[in-house]
Amino acid sequence: MIKNNLFSGLMFVLIFIGTAQAGAQSNDRAVDDVQGAIAFIEGLSDETIAIWSDTNMTAQERSSAFRGIFEDATDIELLAKGMLGRHYRSASSDLRKSYMAAMTNYIIFEFDKRMSQIGFKKLAVTGTTPASGKRGHLFVRTEVDREDGAPLLADWRVRKKNGKFQIVNLEIEGINLLITNRELFSSRIKEVGLEGLIQELENEVKES
Question: Using alpha carbons only, what angle is made at residue 172 by residues 151 and 58, rounded to the nearest 5 degrees?
Answer without folding.
Answer: 75
